Amino acid sequence: MVLWGPVLGALLVAIVGCMWLLGMLRQRRPREPPLDKGSIPWLGHAMAFRKNMFEFLKHMRAKHGEIFTVQLGGQYFTFVMDPLSFGPILKDAQRKLDFVEYAEKLVLKVFGYRSVQGDYRMIHSASTKHLMGDGLEELNRAMLDSLSLAMLGSTGPSPDASCWHEDGLFRFCYNILFKAGYLSLFGYTKDKKQELLQAEELFVEFRKFDRLFPRFVYSLLGPREWLEVGRLQRLFHKALSVEHNLEKCGISNWITYMLQFLREQGVVPAMQDKFNFMMLWASQGNTGPTSFWALLFLLKHPEAMRAVREEATQVLGEARLEAGKSFDFNISALHQMPVLDSVMEETLRLGAAPTLLRVVNNDHILKMSNGQDYLLRSGDILALFPYLSVHMDPDIHPEPTTFKYDRFLTPSGSRKVDFYKAGKKIHHYTMPWGSGVSICPGRFLALSEMKLFVLLMVTHFDLELVDPDTPVPPVDPQRWGFGTTQPSHEVRFRYRLRPAE
């Protein structure tokens, strides 16, 4: 027993020594970007990065310029901050920058799903077939029914629906969008009232997982939190099991198509359950938070709210809900609302902050827009953070921190697509959905779902903030880099259904 002390001490010294060597041995090679390893061996800048990614990258950019490599927990990330240099990265015709490898490791860790060959292409193929064109129109109609169910209940508007109700705006939006999206994609039994209650219970568990998600990805959970994550994973695998799906009707063609592919590849049902959990997260993890920002910006900017309502009246007519009825309007009207489109695009510019990652498979030369070449080292990860480098660039978007509902409208009222940086037209003027091989395959469904919800809220409900002077809350710093940001605190609001005339 006495010998264990020296043995453990020697082991600790060896581990610390290895960590120190891993950090100290790497040196910047000729033509490589500036290298900043930080002061802590192996960890490097990991703690500062995880504390507030946005502020950390602002500091690194001011220190090193438009491209730099930093050490984060034993891994080296090269950040490119110049949007005019994004083209070669996003196109990558030679396939030297791999997105799939990183994504497969992440979904295995977070959702327990082990990818099979070809499933990444299959997801994009399924999305092209069922989340665009006629397939999207069909799913939009199902989404409208599910939004009616989630917002009005299984029996239609309650007698007190025209009375004022108070709630947290973030919770309200996230709750409604989650339930509607879940029911639209994964179906329901004949007992819609019970399905709605189960969806509500599932949302509570989804939010628990959501709160742990950023630190889970970074492996920063405490012992009890790791146990809680395991419990939540098992709960969702069971709730979304393919066996349970057999009891339901109305499962979307999108989900059905993908599960059929997995069955044909011999994927066992337990792994299909994990795939379903991954798709639930991918489809519902950002729509609620984005809708929160959209409604908050409209409530804080009355001129924007008026413009959206006036456009809706022109396209749809006066919106009044008859007693005992669900929401009903022509889904194709969503394509005739450039003001609403601009509001959503501006909301995504201000609220969406994903990180785009590529693994460098072989040493690779990156040519920047200023003509300078940089050597990217094999095994490193190339990263883009468009929120800072594009969305908040005052050259591309004047007054970038200000919500301007018509920022993406031309003087004639059509969609604006011409934006410039340093006098050059820029193709990637917003990137809320990612881009290139990592672009979100479900973006058209997500956007339609959010537009439907916002449209229903502003046309069928009276809305107001409990405190009209409440400021827009700052972003929770843990959410930078994980899709749509979330507020650091709740915002209270009131709503009531407009009575039928």
From TrEMBL:
UniProt binding sites for heme: 440
Recorded superkingdom: Eukaryota
InterPro entries: Cyt_P450, Cyt_P450_CYP7A1-type, Cyt_P450_E_grp-IV, Cyt_P450_sf, Cytochrome_CYP8B1
Example GO biological process: lipid metabolic process
Keywords: Endoplasmic reticulum, Heme, Iron, Lipid biosynthesis, Lipid metabolism, Membrane, Metal-binding, Transmembrane, Transmembrane helix
Protein name (Swiss-Prot/TrEMBL): 7-alpha-hydroxycholest-4-en-3-one 12-alpha-hydroxylase
Transmembrane region(s): 6-25
Main location: endoplasmic reticulum
Cofactor(s) named in the record: heme
